Amino acid sequence: QVAQGIQRVFRLQAKPHASRGTLPIRRSRTAMALPHAITWALVLRAGLLCTRIASCAAEGEACELPGCSEEQELDVVAQLQVQRGRAKQKGAVRSKRPHVVMIVADDLGLGDLPMYAGNNTVIETPAIDRLVAGGMTLGRYYSQPTCSPTRAAIHTGRYPIRYGLQMLVLPPYAPYSLPTNEPMLPQAFQAAGYATHAIGKWHLGFNTWNATPAYRGYDSFYGYYHGEVGPYDQMRDGLFDWHRQDRPNCGKDCVQTVWSLNNNTYNTYAITDEAVSIISGHDVSQPLFMYVAYENTHAPCEVPEKYVDPYKTKVRDRTRQVYAGMVAALDEGVGNITAALEAQGMLEDTIIIFSSDNGGPIASPDTGLGNIMNTLRESLGISMEFCGTGSWGQDTGATNYPLRGSKGSLYEGGVRVPGVVHYPRKLKAGSTFDGIFSASDWFPTLLSAAGVPDVRQRDNFPFDGVDQWQHMTAPSGPSPNEERMLLLNVDFSNFGGALVQGRFKYFNGGPFYFEPWQYPPEVGAAEGWSEDEDPKVGLPIWCPWGCMVDLIADPREERPFTPNVFVHPELLPKFHAFQAAHAAFKAEAVTPLFWQTITNPKKAEIKATAEANGGVWTPFMD
Hints:
Layout: H1 2-11, H2 36-46, H3 70-89, E1 99-105, H4 114-117, H5 126-134, E2 136-142, H6 147-156, H7 185-191, E3 195-201, E4 220-224, E5 235-236, E6 239-240, E7 243-245, E8 256-257, H8 267-280, E9 288-293, H9 305-308, H10 318-343, E10 350-356, H11 368-379, H12 412-415, E11 419-422, E12 431-438, H13 442-450, H14 469-473, E13 486-489, E14 497-501, E15 504-509, H15 521-527, E16 543-550, H16 572-588, H17 595-599, H18 603-612
Parallel strand pairs: 1-9, 1-10, 2-12, 3-4, 3-9
Antiparallel strand pairs: 2-11, 4-7, 5-6, 7-8, 10-11, 13-14, 14-15, 15-16
């Protein structure tokens, strides 16, 4: 009876504990039974004074072990999962190559995670903290300023200026996509025998079927094509957007519309459940590449209230409370995916990557610029991202504190984002990689980590990304890319360009908007400030002929300077090198495809086609 009772814990819910993270928090689709001998051995070895196991409540409710403390209950569950994984692996032929699970959060600010913010945030992320404690934190991980460009850089290993995705994001009705001749990361894994799966947000275009994930190297796709959907109904502009492509090259006659998610299902749960289901049913002898792209913490800002409740006494701002709840739901998903890998005996053989696609959006809707940008976004069919009337200059509730700037900017707050890599077999637990790491580095770095050959000749598609694996696994001396000049973006239509090299950052053009410094409400309240005292807005950097910022001496990017014979003459050679590199990148950049959206006259026709197709978003140019 004791053994049977403990086994039922796997099928039900274990209570979260702040110091231990989350083991299975929500119910799993897969029953996790263990041999009785293993169960008994675990109970005896743990030395728990559990005298009996009460019958558990109905599926999905909490299951308690009377006689045990909460800590002991989680010990039982954790050890059972580890032993179950080892039992499954015993006698099984393990993959010779590592599995790779890449988890990408949406609009998650650097200042929102304890791994970076410490005591400056009240948000708790026990599952992500476990990855940090057991893995390597990327101290200077750079994304692109917005979503689609970052996802493109991850998938291609190349700067978005190479294929026209450097400007903003792919809006609805975009008559273009990430060009289909670009070699893709999942294609390389697929050719090497990996099972490849994409879950959640795509946002790299779906104007034609061969732009969709099942044609770009993924064996399956389960998610939405746009940049955002309603988190409970999966609707975008009045049309449904959630699909299943269950095999490669799954197009019009194969794709399934997942209408079941149009019925008050929180899509963070759906994404996690799909990931757990794939892992639980995976043959461990075949290597796995899985790309999991959550909508959290992107607008619309909605989350089940149970995730908000713990923060109602910790911070008074409602926008921040809801945002903290979205982070908590995201963290729960990360915990469930990690637990599924552990239960399947794959955790030690899996490279887990957790990151965000750009900084948190913080431009206040009450400022003149916020109103102007809202008008521009709405005219282009891009929905507003402001989620309420939050204090302290917030819109979604995110913060990039103490960095300057917002999503959409080239300030550090817009492009320097969370990143952690967990791989017990190779990476030192609790370590930090202090070199510059870019979203474009994932492709060459993961090929190296997995021993996977590239599938395409690189003559016409040279990597901009750098293979960081050797230095991550055996660091000695300075990073091999210490002198690398990393492009953040290139000047176009006065939005401006920026590069980073070592401690210095170079700006060219401008004015560079989305420039506030925004404190988390909990920090402002702790300091006794009123909301009016929050130093939200400063003058934007504007450098038509270029300027530099010393990110060590001036981490808040308040004092840009232009070297000359009187001001930092010793930096003139570096300044001229920045100027030359920026000019070269600008000359190489292709015309942004975004302009096609503005000149596209078929917006109404595209929506009418989708409405005639049952009210579902599908490719509209085939």
